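Z., the sequence and structure:
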Amino acid sequence: MKNFLIILFLCCVFSGVKAIESKIIYNIGNEIITNIDIKREFKYLIALNNSLKELSKEKILDISNESIIREKIKKIEIQKNFKEIKLDEDYYEVLIKNIYSRLALKSINEFEIYLKNYDLTINDIKIKITIDALWNELIIQKYKAQISINETKIRKEIIKNSKVQSKEYQLSEIIFEVTNKNEIQNKYNEVIKSINEIGFENSAATYSFSESAKVGGDIGWINGNSLNDNIKGNINSLQVGEITKPIVLSNGILVLKLINTKNSETTIDIENEFKKAINYERNRQLNQYSKIYFNKIKKNINFDG
């Protein structure tokens, strides 16, 4: 593995060399991963999260390696459950706009120019987001009956705060795994040490199993009414820039960073906020089931590499 990483490192350093021999690095089920695939993943992840450039190329390659393996495993399972690996064009537009807006770009044309700097195209992005979107749909299909959301409580909380000053939080997350409760503090300390050394965004890319890891853990602005009591209680005492203690979830440990806050004194749209709150809580739970299901299928797949 060490020699493999060095070879890939040299491939990326000498990117001016046009003819790079394609070599199969992994054979996963009916999918192969080549050194070219990993190099492309390297570029894709940096394009989405520029802070990765602060890491060594070997570290980025390690992250890229794990990322492309996860994608291929997901693709194999998607092929078993969907007739076509494609999305509606309208859905593509929404997902692509979400990506370039996060990068502070104003149009898809600006995004296309931006991607050229990384030897990527819109079609490359479509391939990636198709796998992510269909995987999320698959998890919904598998676990929707197990999602438990107290809609009555959420609606009451929103109504109670609909005409008073409400608070919004800009958050980033890291969700990591432990095998038992005794590991939580040690793993948390390891993550905090990493944050102090390479920053939260790069630590999210390194440690987090959440889909947000690809964008440095960014989950955007969340209305306080959308958060459950446990999470809200953990971030209420934070100052901007501070990080929560480990928050125990059903299938992982959550660490949040408070990026910013803002207050709103306007009357909120109750139905809109209700939908956002339901989506946030559903996605939070689905993210946990996603990891459960991924670990399950990974154990049963042929892996050569």
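The first helix runs from residue 2 to 13. The chain has a mean pLDDT of 86.

Let me know what you think.
H.
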